[in-house]
Amino acid sequence: xxxxxxxxxxxxxxxxxxxxxxxxxxxxxEGIDLGDVRTQADFEKLPFSDKADLRAAxxxxxxxxxxxxxxxxxxxxxxxxxxxxxxxxxKDVEDWAVQFARCYEYAGVTPLDRVHxxxxxxxxxxGIGFQAGCELLGAMAVPMGPGNTDKQxxxxxxxxSTVLCATSSYxxxxxxxxxxxxxxxxxxxxxxxxxxxxxxxxxxxxIHDILGVEMYDIYGLTEVYGPGIGISxxxxxxxxxWSDFVYVEIIDPQTGEVLPDGEFGEIVLTTLRKEGAPLIxxxxxxLSRIVPGECACGHNEHPRIDTLSGxxxxxMKIHGVNVFPAQIEEILATFAGxxxxxxxxxxxxxxxxxxxxxxxAVSGSVDFNGxxxxxxxxxxxxxxxxxxxxxVELGLLPRSEKKTKRVxxxxxx
Length: 413
Ligand code: ZN
What we know:
Distance between the termini: 42 Å
Strand order of the largest sheet: 4-3-5-6-7-8-9-13
Number of strands: 20
Bound molecules: zinc ion
Number of helices: 12
């Protein structure tokens, strides 16, 4: 993707004096004269930054402004060790809300909407981002946070919420609950803004079948503001990423080489205006591609990335074969008898890697054994090994309020 002229100018301005403002970048770009970055090609020679670099700067080593300019911090989850802390200036907080309000606009949300926000509040960036954008747009925020399904459904009915913000797994859980309790007629939802998780077509279809809502896929991560740096439009043809705030590259996760538009690889983001913790060529580990060509919505100043196809670190190695959950999902999508829900368990059996694949059937009238055999055969032919597939009843696999864990690796426990 060709860098826009205004993006290059903004990047050059940002690089100016960056090493003086930020000890983090003084170290990272040691021996590099940032004044030499004059073209896109020069920029593409700069080293990447990674979550590990950010972690090493814990707690506030990423800050590129004096203490008095920091008004808030957010933190990404620390499940894999030290968390990353991102400091925000007042301007960063405002810029984030501007981007988020734009997301709602693209989704057709208006000041007459009532926006039911289920993502969590706190150190995590989710809930507060959904709320700030909603308030800036002028819609009514209903700041639920996650959990307590009874209360969610009660408030949704009493307030007549028209927009639901949720992860796709929680939206599915709520939708199934609405269906089970036969509340469809009492629910006024017309739009679903969901994100922060790759979600297969089957989940979307199932939510759409139950709720009949228009769905918008939102993108973002705590390190780069939070959710709200991009969203899909009415064309449902990828997520527009705000080119005035973020520069997107897609790289080969193995070699680091920048890939041409249309090829799948890892998303690398550079913030164009961030003050508190600017990020230069940050490796997200999210896998996607730049959607080539023009979008029919006409907003072509904001390039599109495809629905996330996984995380580069979700890659499983089985019998020496690299496998992504997305591949398994694609195969499952071809079976009408399989629901959206599945679980992969990797274990060591008799000295060999084994994949057990649990798949929910769409109904009890499906031939469980036949379906399991067909799925195993399809995985064998498309991926190269045979999983032990077991088909189970609908609703048996766990649903989660956050991100549903689909791969459980028991080989090293
Ligand atoms: Zn569009």
